[in-house]
Amino acid sequence: MEAGPLAVFLDANILFSSALGRSRGRAAFDLLWELAAGGRLTLVTSVYCHVEAERNLALKAPDALGTFRRRMRQVRTVATTGDAPEWADCLPPEDRPVLAGALACGAAVLITGDRRHFGPLMDRPDLPIRVTTLRAFLAGGPPDLPA
Predict the structure, then answer these.
(1) Residues 53 and 12: beta-carbon distance below 8 Å
(2) How far is the C-alpha of 46 from the C-alpha of 67, rounded, in Å?
(3) Residues 6+ apart with CB under 8 A from 118
(4) Which of 62, 102, 126, 128, CA to CA, is 20 to 30 A from 22?
């Protein structure tokens, strides 16, 4: 049986940054969305992350809301609840729902720009999900990416 596209969960800071046209890393965000458009990835986020990203854009960069909404058409938003596992006790309370959402929807990868909080969980092979930055995800090659 052939596996479907790799499920990649996007943290709010990734959604926020992808909407900013002036970002240095714009090409990396464009590539991520191109991989999804080509059926190689499924981009997923939670209502929690979607709302946080949209709220922050409305406050800090309202001119980017149109880009955000266009990008979100390619992102499956899931309503997830639950707690993060004990092995994630290094996360502050506001980040635990992000990990819980990624795990609950069955994502293989959680992409975040938050190295400070998620750093201890990044690229650990002993975890059931790969936690990484966008740059590391693209540079290292997505695991099990269908051809």
Answers:
(1) yes
(2) 18
(3) 11, 91, 95, 99, 110, 112, 131
(4) 102
Q: Is the dihedral of CA 42, 120, 94, 22 positive or negative?
A: negative
Please state whether 70 falls in left (phi above 0), alpha (psi between -120 and 50) or beta: alpha
User: Can you list the residues of the chain whose pLDDT is less than 70?
Assistant: 1-3, 21-25, 141-147
Side chain identity at residue 115, one-letter code = R
Q: What is the CA radius of gyration of the chain?
A: 14
d(C-alpha 144, C-alpha 147), whole Å: 9
Nearest residue to 84 via CA among 9, 2, 30 = 9
